[in-house]
Amino acid sequence: MTSVAQQLHSARESQKLTIHQVAEVTKIRTDHIRALEEGNFNVFSAPVYIRGFVRTYAMLLKLDLAHVMASLDAELGQTEKFREPPPLTDESRGALDFVMLQLSKLNLRTAGILLAGVAVVAVLIGSIAAWRHHRQADPLANLGPGIYQPAQPAPSGETVPLPSAAPAPRR
């Protein structure tokens, strides 16, 4: 039984395709294609990438997809790094992780409408509170005490008398 790497390599060569042509069609990087053809799965950080790239590559080469994927699962089961999937639960999660998880479950459209409604209500309550405070506030509350200064008698001859209440007619 041939490995997945050998199947991919021999199928590509039989169709006279270069690694660059495969990379252009599949949008898989050339170093990843070389790693798949060499069976070097340690280049990849997770098995989901390997499975996706092999699926795309096998579909391009028109290989038996079910057989290739079964062979890949058997090969990944033999490697230490990809033997079992990473655990889904992690006890080291903090409060921020919990909040982000809950936010990721929200429907964005519904959450946006709800958030906009809360913002409108908050602005309305703030406006009413400011208006009531303004109405009830004493406008003279911040003034200091007034100082009474009695009128001092004007020294004689230094001031000019004020005209009478009715102005004189002009000529």
What does this entry look like structurally?
The chain has seven helices and no strands. With 171 residues, the protein is mostly helical. Among the domains are: 4-78, 434 Repressor (Amino-terminal Domain) (Orthogonal Bundle); 95-136. α4 (47-60) packs antiparallel against α5. The termini are far apart.
Summed up, what is this model?
The chain is mainly α.
Task: Itemize the secondary structure elements and their pairings.
Elements: H1 4-14, H2 19-26, H3 30-38, H4 47-60, H5 65-78, H6 95-104, H7 108-136
Fill in the keyword field for this structure.
171 residues, mainly alpha, 434 Repressor (Amino-terminal Domain), 56% helix, rod-shaped
**Major beta sheet summary:** none
| CATH class wording of one domain | Mainly Alpha
CATH H level, superfamily name of one domain: lambda repressor-like DNA-binding domains
Class computed from helices, strands and strand pairing: mainly alpha
Strand content: under 5%
Number of helices: 7
CATH architecture of one domain: Orthogonal Bundle
The radius of gyration computed from the alpha-carbon positions, rounded to a whole number of angstroms, is 42 Å
Instruction: Please tell me the overall pLDDT.
Output: 82
Helical coverage, percent range: 55-70%
Give unreliable regions as ranges. Answer: none
Order of helices and strands: HHHHHHH
End-to-end separation in angstroms reads: 128 Å
The CATH topology of one domain: 434 Repressor (Amino-terminal Domain)
Number-wise, the strands total: 0
Shape by Cα distribution: rod-shaped
